[in-house]
Design goal:
Length: 185
């Protein structure tokens, strides 16, 4: 970083840029807006107009280097296939939402949904860094699925059939995923 900030702040800003870019769901404007807000809050003496493009290009370069070694089909590709299949079965799927309120609104706006599967932006950031994505699965009335229910069994079966290890724990599905999402900002 050419803009003077503390080592800790620089590391945190690079980490935020990394997860925002690697998520594969945020576009350049959203990534830049989130980073600008973080710079203004965490490094008020830095110029966001200089620092933010530096952070984004650094994260993009690191991603491009890593992506050159990835297999043709990645875990996020398999996850996308599962989510598309769930949508074809009548479930509402909400990707990279801000929170459960946003997911609930999508469910309520749907006509005769069979259920809801969603994950938040922070769930994806956790998957980027730690290889585990939390999926929430709700019934049409917004009740969480519980062990033994067909809806939960169906989602778990689809994930496992696509080579995505998954377990139900404390009201959510924990999916083991190597977050290798190809990104074009």
């Amino acid at each position: 970083m050419t803009t003077p900030v503390s080592d800790r702040t620089a590391r945190e800003l690079r980490g935020l840029a990394r997860v925002l870019v690697r998520s594969g769901y945020a576009d350049r404007a959203a990534v830049s807006a989130a980073l600008t807000e973080a710079v203004q809050e965490d490094a008020p003496s830095a110029d966001p107009a200089v620092l933010v493009p530096e952070l984004v290009s650094g994260a993009e370069a690191e991603l491009a280097e890593d992506a050159a070694t990835w297999p043709a089909e990645t875990d996020p590709d398999r996850l996308d296939a599962v989510l598309a299949e769930l949508e074809s079965l009548g479930l509402v799927v909400v990707r990279y939402c801000a929170d459960h309120h946003e997911a609930r609104k999508a469910l309520e706006a749907s006509i005769e949904p069979k259920g809801l599967v969603f994950f938040t932006d922070t769930d994806v950031w956790h998957a980027v860094d730690f290889g585990m994505l939390e999926l929430k699965v709700w019934h049409p009335d917004t009740a969480n699925v519980v062990p033994g229910e067909p809806l939960l069994a169906d989602v778990l079966t689809l994930l496992r059939e696509r080579g995505l290890p998954a377990v139900f724990d404390e009201g959510r599905i924990e999916v083991t995923v190597n977050w290798q999402r190809r990104v074009q900002l």
